[in-house]
């Protein structure tokens, strides 16, 4: 939820992490802002720029296959999905939102790799603009926190 109380995590340290980002180009004004906020937060958390790999795909439905290719390389400590799905007048919104989300979750479980899902689903452009920076930064924090957690649990 936008503006929700997300609690606080211990100090997040991304110094040793390798992060992969898949960004959809569809609604690029929003996804570029998501990516900028995400990358800025990763750097602030100590992730080295050279350890951040970012690729782009046409839209949200293509995000899972690129994430899968990254997961199969076994080079990344966490992955991040960035996209924006804005409701239109057809069922296509539900299809894209549900299938892209399910694909991201399935990959995280199948490959046992944290994937921060910042494919935002909104009713209109105004909602997307209001959420773009916060959700991009949130995705970076989730990726770093979960990568460190899974490392500690292994």
What does this structure look like?
With 154 residues, the protein is an alpha/beta fold. The chain has a single domain, classed as Rossmann fold. The chain is built from four helices and four strands. Strands 2-1-3-4 form a four-stranded parallel sheet, sandwiched between helices. Strand 3, helix 3 and strand 4 form a beta-alpha-beta unit. The chain starts with 18 loop residues before the first strand and ends with a helix. The model has no long low-confidence stretch (mean pLDDT 92).
Architecture blueprint of SSEs:
Elements: E1 19-24, H1 28-44, E2 52-57, H2 63-73, E3 78-86, H3 92-111, E4 115-122, H4 125-153
Parallel strand pairs: 1-2, 1-3, 3-4
Helix pairs in contact: 1-4, 2-3
Active site: 92 (proton donor)
EC number: 2.5.1.78
Binding site for 5-amino-6-(D-ribitylamino)uracil: 26, 60-62, 84-86, 117
Mean pLDDT: 92
Computed over alpha carbons, the radius of gyration is 15 Å
How many domains in all? 1
Q: How many DSSP E strands?
A: 4
As for the CATH topology, it is Rossmann fold
**For the largest beta sheet, what order do the strands appear in spatially?**
2-1-3-4
- The SSE string, one letter per element, is EHEHEHEH
CATH architecture type: 3-Layer(aba) Sandwich
Percentage of β-strand residues? 15-25%
Low-confidence stretches: none
Question: What key phrases describe this protein's structure?
Answer:
154 residues, alpha/beta, Rossmann fold, four-stranded parallel beta sheet, 4 helices, 4 strands, 19% strand, 6,7-dimethyl-8-ribityllumazine synthase, transferase, EC 2.5.1.78
